[in-house]
Design goal:
With about 180 residues, the chain is mostly helical. The chain contains five helices and no strands.
């Protein structure tokens, strides 16, 4: 009799563990998909800024190097967080050059790059939001009982949001009941 009860309890615990483990695996897959989407969009932005260098130089009297930080990124290995920040700086420089040189606004290839950069901004905002939503849910199950037991057993750690914050940065931990 006791053997049967122990067997049932062990089966129940095993079923519970597998269910929670699979939930983590689903989140990990979704996080990887979101990261791939962000990576693809960032690569697109990087390529657009690189293409714009020759167009800007051909249509303006700029002789000095432009987008120096972007050019240097070719040989560096950066996280998506760092790459996003560098590309944001590059896009600001792009906009500044556009405002300073009216003749660029007449160049079809420059206009096309500008439109594609604007489209990529909408894509990256949507990808960031999706990523951060998944990370919120993932971090919740890591922090809540009883799934935090499986997280500890499997070595799962909290992940940072795309803006670089993590759950410890938020006011969440300051809230007391």
């Amino acid at each position: 009799m006791y053997g049967l009860m122990i067997f049932i309890v062990i089966c129940f615990l095993l079923l519970w563990y597998v269910t929670i483990y699979n939930k983590f695996q689903t989140f990990i897959i979704r996080i990887n998909e979101a990261e791939a989407s962000i990576d693809s969009t960032l690569r697109k932005r990087f390529d657009l800024l690189n293409k714009s260098i020759s167009i800007i130089k051909a249509n303006t009297d700029i002789k000095e190097e432009i987008f120096e930080d972007i050019v240097k990124l070719r040989s560096r290995k950066l996280t998506n967080f760092e790459l996003d920040r560098k590309l944001y700086d590059g896009i600001n420089e792009f906009d500044k050059i556009k405002e300073e040189h009216e003749d660029l606004k007449k160049c079809d290839s420059f206009i096309k790059i500008e439109l594609n950069l604007n489209e990529s901004e909408a894509e990256i905002v949507a990808s960031r939001r999706y990523y951060n939503d998944i990370i919120t849910d993932y971090n919740k199950i890591i922090r809540t009982f009883p799934s935090n037991i499986v997280a500890k057993l499997c070595g799962y750690k909290q992940k940072t949001y795309f803006d670089g914050k993590d759950m410890t940065d938020d006011k969440i931990n300051d809230f007391k009941l």
